[in-house]
Amino acid sequence: MADATPFLDPDPSVAELLASHPSLKMDPLCGLMLDGVALNAIADAVGTPCWVMGGDTLRTRVRRMQQAMRDAGLNVSLHYAVKANDHLAVLSLLREEGAGADIVSGGELARALKAGIAPAHIVFSGVGKTDAELERAIGLGIGQINVESAEELDIISSIASRLGTRATITLRVNPDVDAGTHAKITTGLAANKFGIPYDHAAALYARAASLPGIRAVGFATHIGSQILSVAPYRAAYARIADLVRTVRAAGQTVEVVDCGGGLGISYRTEPEGQPEALAGAMKAELGGLDVRLAIEPGRWLAAPAGLLLSSVILNKARGNEAPFLVLDAAMNDLLRPSMYDAWHGIVPLSPHVATLPAGPAHVVGPVCESGDTFARDRHLPPMQRGARVAILDTGAYGAVMSSTYNSRPLAAEVLVEDGTWHVIRPRQSLEALWQGETVPAHLAGTA
After folding, report:
1. Which residues bind pyridoxal 5'-phosphate (predicted)?
2. Residue 441 domain-assigned (yes or no)
3. What is the pLDDT of residues 195-204, one digit of tens each?
């Protein structure tokens, strides 16, 4: 359930949330604005719930990430982690900014290609790539496949040989470094399913160099998500640097180190991960290796650029207990609070409501699950039926994880950019919920 872990410090107020989100402003007449566009105007036009993505904010963040690497004197390829938000408009915008794609499925490969990202700028990660996905990627001449196991290496060798080509691969190494994140989003521990055990990597790299259809170019690592300190990065990169030196001493060639992603943001009051600090860690541990570097950010780029608009269906009073604010958004829209106990800021759209004295409330959705809870005992201004709110920092792992559970149509999506906005996915119709379903003739009704 949301907010299950008690915090020692008070929740940030509405004013504090606005101060920590430079893309948001509270206009005294229009209410809450994202990148200069009134969110009430969007909600009036397309209804709620509705996802809104700030294109200007997204561009600002990717440029800052790129600049941090340049300022550190690093030549780094940036591949956006498509799983964070795979909308074609988001991928197209990031392609314009010079980003490639980090994918984990054949569907994400198809999306990246549809958005105009060249195969050479795509990296394929993931522990369970199918033969069909690998054949498609290898046939396209994809830039890099991050190999997760000895078994997968043999499969890739067989497919590439059959196609009469060579697949460019790195070995994804599990450095057994604890990134200190939520158990469900850590990926760099020995107990996790991801990557090749560190102690096996040198031998497997030597074997890769001898396999037909394989062009082994280096190593990759990714230790988790929502990482706020550079210490785990430095520890992981130091181990990778030692590995590079070891295999080079054995006569192997290493051209690439893929540093992964996972840089975290400030959802509540925690300090945001800093691209400049990440660049510093990369330079300190890997800068002297004469390798090409790559990164795969997702959350840090996209999460603060997006929000979920919702309306209060009703304020369910409970005597002296905190009321339930029942929203028209639910866990099928934003799964993170139910799945990860994630904390998301909640801000009223009304400038008047935003200034009212706050009191505790439980913010929930209408889905028939007790876990359909966004916040418990959250201090919010009083809000009645019809009041609108923005749930913050949902540009990553928000809409992309939505479902139609309880036969709830997928919410509309909107992109804000250059002072205007565009519907980039209309609200799903009720009829679309069963499109593609068939009923055997003997069960068909008359409706």
Report:
1. 262, 296-299, 397
2. no
3. 899 999 999 9
